Inverse folding.
């Protein structure tokens, strides 16, 4: 399957309020140099959903060099401000980010159709309200958008909470109703992008490539440096490259390869390994 190269920069867990300004500047420099087809911002833009944090997030988004699709994370809800959390949970998100958190958002670029959904919830029937959930209405919305995609378009789903965990992240939990989501998206989506765990990894689940990015610019590290992913698709080959912040700049460190078997059906390709520094 031929096609133009596609490059998606995947960022997550910016956590303005706990961000490192020098890392944020280095990230913007790296993205401007990369010039990606599109940028996926996978939630947790703020630490406590404060006004100043949203203003800083907005200024960062305004500096991005490519079309960006932005979804909320659990930290973009008022945390312990319970009254606000229940009566006007997304007021600041709407004001500063400008999208409807209850509707799917889309981004189209050359050869890509990406759909973003909000998996953060103001409460849940469990003690850990940081856990997210996807519902049947959201899945139907994704599929309706995909029906409008070109036959060769890469179909991307962007959400904050993960559809895949590694042993290091098992206590965090998958996004609620992940099994239903994977069944509905099977052979309909190519790539599922997320954050929340603050660890970068990727693999294939039910024929879809799942890629998670770490915390791009915050000090809330979980044993890995700040990072972001560059996902490159050329024909039937897809590479997830994780770039770590090395104290000065973002450098390619890990690369995993995936190969298309058929339309919207992927498998693990050549073994991944250390990347040649970019
Ligand atoms: Fe986070
Ligand atoms: Fe999160």
């Amino acid at each position: 399957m031929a096609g133009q190269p596609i490059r998606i920069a995947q960022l997550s867990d910016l956590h303005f309020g706990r961000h490192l300004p020098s890392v944020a500047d280095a990230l913007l420099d790296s993205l401007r140099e990369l010039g990606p087809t599109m940028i996926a911002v996978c939630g947790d833009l703020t630490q406590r959903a404060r006004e100043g944090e949203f203003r800083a997030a907005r200024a960062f988004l305004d500096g991005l060099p490519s079309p960006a699709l932005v979804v909320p994370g659990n930290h973009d809800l008022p945390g312990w401000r319970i009254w606000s959390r229940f009566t006007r949970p997304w007021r600041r998100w709407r004001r500063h980010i400008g999208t409807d958190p209850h509707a799917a958002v889309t981004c189209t670029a050359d050869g890509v159709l990406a759909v973003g959904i909000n998996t953060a919830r103001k409460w849940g029937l469990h003690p850990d309200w940081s856990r997210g959930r996807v519902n049947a209405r959201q899945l139907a919305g994704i599929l309706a958008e995909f029906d409008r995609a070109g036959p060769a378009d890469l179909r991307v789903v962007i959400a904050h909470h993960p559809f895949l965990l590694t042993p290091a992240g098992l206590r965090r939990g998958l996004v609620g109703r992940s099994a239903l989501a994977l069944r509905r998206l099977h052979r309909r989506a190519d790539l599922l992008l997320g954050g929340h765990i603050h660890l970068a990894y990727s693999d294939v689940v039910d024929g879809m490539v799942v890629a998670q990015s770490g915390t791009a610019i915050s000090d809330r590290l979980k044993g890995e440096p700040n990072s972001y992913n560059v996902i490159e698709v050329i024909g039937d080959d897809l590479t997830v490259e994780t770039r770590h912040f090395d104290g000065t700049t973002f450098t390619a460190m890990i690369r995993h390869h995936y190969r298309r078997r058929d339309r919207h059906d992927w498998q693990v390709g050549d073994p991944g390994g250390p990347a040649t520094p970019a």
